[in-house]
Amino acid sequence: MVQLAREVVLDPTYPTVRAWTRRGRRAVGCFPVYTPQELVHAMGLLPVSLHGGGENVEISHADAALGSFLCSISKSTLELALTARLAPFRAFIFPYICDVSRNLEGIFSRLMPGTETHMLHLPQNFRSEATVPFLVAEYRRLIAKLERAGGEPYRPERLEASVRLFNLQRERIGELTATKRDEPDKLTLTESYLLRRLGGLLPREVHVELLDRMRSQIEDRPPRRKDAIRTLLVGPFCEQPTLDLIDLIEQAGCYIVDDELLQVHRWYGQLEVEGDPLVSLARAYVQSPVDIGVRAAPSSKGEAILRRVNDARAQGVIFLTAKFCEPALEDVVLYRKALDRQKIPYLHLEFEERSTSFEQSRLQLETFVESILFD
Amino acid sequence: MITAGLDLGAGSTKGVLLEDGERILASALAPTRGNPVERSRQVLERMVEEANVLSDEVGYLCTTGAARYALPERHLQVSDITASARGAVFLVPGTRHVVDIGSQSSRAVSVSETGRVIRFKMNEKCAAGAGRFVDRCAKYLQVPPEEMADRALGSTHPKMISSVCAVLAETEIINSVAEEVPLPDILMGVFLSLAQRAYILMRYVGIQPEVSLVGGLVHSPAMSRALEQMVKAPIVAHPMGQYAAAFGAALLGHARMQKLSSSPLPMGTPGG
């Protein structure tokens, strides 16, 4: 199952989406970090998480439109579009998480005239009474675009049904991440990551079924404790590290007991619909406990990282930030100050999608582990 | 209890034999010349001979350095940053900051009183920040590498190299020669340029005395002087500083051996 997941994730031609569209259905590409995928689903469309091209996509066209000082995910996503590998998609949603994502939406709208593109403005002020109505209005703008992209007309009861399905998916993913936190030897970070990543590529019912099957398999695994360091992984919430690098982190002697990978599935827990489901969806976004670089912190960033270290019972923190990712890098300074105060060890590594040599990263990871292992 | 530490470096292979994690029995060094396995076996053999012990008496072999995974008979491998930090504190007790300028890379490490790594920073994929840069400059300037430091110390107005790239630095050095800048000033500029790059790393981890220089340039008084000029504090360059990582490996090997003899290994090794 994990091998199959690896193949699906590494295939930049989106085989699951092509299979879906061959049946006359339509798909919508959702750029990280958060989009209301329940809403896309409720309109009869398949929401698909876009995570760039990964290590298998050579950039030959996108460099003409995007500078060398920009993150890899922006370039590889554009490359996929320019080489027709995003042809199965009828629409794209870009949340305004940084200047690059905002401009990418503009580039897509010009270069892909047959598709709908939408810039989703997510609020940063979580205290104002206007925040939820603002987000609901944003969702209504999105609904209009999705209807133009071939989505079925919006109906609140359909959204409620989608929320129930997505609740189930979040519950299963929550179980997976809880297992990684409480019994980190039961599954590797790579396994946990691949299983979660499938959640943005498959019809959600299929993903829930798959996680149901995997749950019992994982539970039955015999414990195999390693002399490894419980570690919190911070930073890769948008561009994704290569699978080789994800593998390497645990090979070097870490147990990643909590991470920021694929936050869209963990933005909130069980969403209770009360009254207008659009309002409930907007409120869930606003009240989310997620505290990452693209979101203003309800408390201070320093307090947030210490709380997360404590909750995960982590012995150290790895900042794994994509090159040129400003939102991730901005928070690192604040996080470091708080960790320094509490003498919690950390390591900062940068990555790019198409990195192939990890010797320097290996050396740094091993030193980090050894600095905690040896007194 | 004899432990061996082998540093399979890119430029040279260094080894030390320690008894009870304290007494130095032997040390040896050989240029790696692209064959770290063969070289490390030779180094080990020489040390066993020098110490007049049987090879079976070496109870634990810990490797470090760029090729630390290459030697199949090792018991454990540790990163060269961990190892050189331990080794530096062993050689110079009181060290709190280690600057390690190796052949292919430079690192700055802040350490605890036991030599545990607290923070570290290394240069990235750039020859201009490593010892090999000095070798290359020696080649451009046709100065024997072993004479670089002594001749640099005769400098009165060092000519700094502004380029951050080793390839472009070569052009800059050629320009200085064309401008008839005195050779000692160009040579001191090479060391200052290297020190400047190391200083960036050092500031990142926080500079706290004692500062120990380890690695291949430990025998270069010009390097120590250049670093002192940047840091504005004394730099300790122990005569055996080139062996710091090998010492660290031997010490960590000893610690591991003690732990294993007092209680069986409760879990697998990291990554195992």
Please characterize this protein's 3D structure.
The complex is a heterodimer of chains A (375) and B (272). Chain A is α/β, with parallel strands linked by helices. Chain A has a domain at 14-151: Rossmann fold (3-Layer(aba) Sandwich), CATH 3.40.50. Helices cover 48% and strands 13% of the residues of chain A. In chain A, the strands form two sheets. Chain A has a four-stranded parallel sheet with strand order 2-1-3-4, sandwiched between helices. A four-stranded parallel sheet of chain A has the order 6-5-7-8, sandwiched between helices. In chain A, strand 7, helix 13 (326-341) and strand 8 form a beta-alpha-beta unit. The model of chain A has no long low-confidence stretch (mean pLDDT 93). Chain B is α/β, with parallel strands linked by helices. Chain B has two domains: 2-78 and 245-262, Nucleotidyltransferase, domain 5, CATH 3.30.420; 93-237, ATPase, nucleotide binding domain (Nucleotidyltransferase, domain 5), CATH 3.30.420.40. Chain B has eight helices and ten strands. Chain B has helices spanning 36-51, 80-91, 132-141, 148-152, 166-178, 183-205, 221-231, 244-262, and strands spanning 2-8, 12-19, 23-31, 58-64, 76-77, 97-101, 106-111, 117-122, 211-215, 235-236. A five-stranded mixed sheet of chain B has the order 3-2-1-4-5. In chain B, strands 8-7-6-9-10 form a five-stranded mixed sheet, with helices on both faces. In chain B, helix 2 (80-91) packs across helix 8 and helix 6 crosses helix 7. The longest helix of chain B has 23 residues, at 183-205. The two termini of chain B are 26 Å apart. Residues 265-272 of chain B have low confidence and may be disordered.
The helix/strand order of chain B is EEEHEEHEEEHHHHEHEH
Decide which structural class fits the backbone of chain B. Answer: alpha/beta
Q: Can you list the strand order of the major beta sheet of chain B?
A: 3-2-1-4-5
Number of strands of chain A: 8
Average predicted confidence as pLDDT of chain B: 88
What percentage of the residues of chain B does DSSP assign to strands (E)? 15-25%
